[in-house]
Amino acid sequence: MKHIDQQTLELYVLNAQEAGDLKPEIELHVAECLGCKLLFEEISAFHAELSAELKAAAVEAPVTEHRLARRKSALEPFGEPFGATVSYVPRSAMEKVRHLIMKHPIATGAGTFASLAILALGGVFLMRHDTRNPSYVRYNDSAGRFEVDNDQNEMLWSIPLNEAKGHQDAEQASGMKQAEVIDLDADGINEVVTALKFPGNETYTRPALRIFDNSGNVLKQFDERRYAAFNGTTYENALVVTEHFVVDRDAKEFYLVMTNGRSPTVVRRIGRDGTELGEYWHFGQTGALYFSDVDGDGRRELVLCGINDVDDAKELSKPVFTILDPQKIVGRKEATCTRGFGLPPSDAELYYIRLPFTDINFADNVNASVIWMREHDATFEFEMCSQVELVNRALDFSFSRDMRCLGVKATTWTLQRMKVLYESGKAKSLFTPAYEEELVEGVAYWDGSRWSDAKSQVIHPLP
């Protein structure tokens, strides 16, 4: 695969004429190549930030239709450095421009900061390049290694994977990243965050969320364990960190899932400095975790998918998903629909939604679980899965942004199983439009104290 060089990507971001003919090729490549996509997003974010700061400072924005002019002759240096310099790390885009100008002063008759800022706008990104800065991760299946590359597609460091294959496919299938690259301490150098387990000593094999620096050293490791008791039953096995986590890139906070392979599950909220901010306890495994602006209000929510195991000794486990306000995960609290841990009720729940069982669940006596979510322009898709004869029988439920169920689609395997059950007299219907409508009407909403067929949010505070 031939990658797009950094200068061409920047010209494309600036809508420069030089990149006009390459636009289709660039767009196709960026859509397929994770490394170039991340570099494109970083360049776009930098120029957007700088343009906003220039506007706020009443600096006229430059014309971006033309490529940045380059002098053919060298610029004469002005002045000499005096004494030892003090280490300074520019934070905002404007600070980076000022820092660039101070480090590279030029002689000019009528030069002002505004003109220099405009001059820097088109080329500061290239001048601030650091080849030791992680840009993206790669799961190298052929070598069986977890690799961290810079924006020039050069490998900075790598470590063996427990499994040589499947990580990239797992990310694409679930929509959940298994590693994140983010600048946590605002020093201009990214860190790598992952909950993957790596072969070797206990530092890498113990279930944990780890933060690596740009050389592959472990900076922090969150491997604490939790023990659970629910309605008088004490679980001997500890809850440990799973590979499911999300990062709030604005607040620089982590949300990770812990389980012991049984019903108790906890979502932990951890601050950028490692401070434990809150926990959300739930009875029923909830593996899939997403961070998305569900209602379109500009603030992102946590979406947790899984099952509800309350009364699982008497009936099938219920397929559920819940939408949480992440900033309200404060202290140790429990889900309002799975009380029994002896903790206060959580006030972070916005929606707690249960999907209906199908004839497959009743005829084959199998549980159902919400295993993943897909986000589209104006809708969300939740997949409910039941395993029969080692084959997943799935239904995809479509929801609007205000969490109203819009429709249901069945996979080929599900249609085949329903046909077998129907022909043997174990199912009341094939997957017809009427049956789909019955499933839509079977979606239930928890309001904090009871289930309702009418769309509703969880009411707080609880009595």
Strands ordered across the widest β-sheet: 14-15-16-18-23-24
Helix content: 10-25%
Taking all Cα atoms into account, the compactness measure Rg is 26 Å
* Mean pLDDT rating: 83
Q: Give the overall form.
A: globular
* Total beta strand runs: 24
Characteristic key phrases:
463 residues; alpha+beta; 6-stranded antiparallel β-sheet; 5-stranded mixed β-sheet; 11 helices; globular
Question: What does the secondary structure layout of this molecule look like, with pairings?
Answer:
Layout: H1 6-13, H2 23-32, H3 34-56, H4 93-103, H5 113-121, H6 124-127, E1 136-140, E2 145-149, E3 155-160, H7 167-174, E4 179-182, E5 191-194, H8 202-205, E6 209-212, E7 218-222, E8 229-230, E9 233-234, E10 240-248, E11 253-259, E12 264-270, E13 276-283, E14 288-292, E15 301-308, E16 318-324, E17 331-334, E18 349-354, H9 359-364, E19 369-375, E20 379-388, E21 391-400, E22 405-410, H10 412-423, H11 433-441, E23 444-446, E24 451-452
Parallel strand pairs: 13-17
Antiparallel strand pairs: 1-2, 2-3, 4-5, 5-6, 6-7, 8-9, 10-11, 11-12, 12-13, 14-15, 15-16, 16-18, 18-23, 19-20, 20-21, 21-22, 23-24
Helix pairs in contact: 1-3, 2-3, 4-5
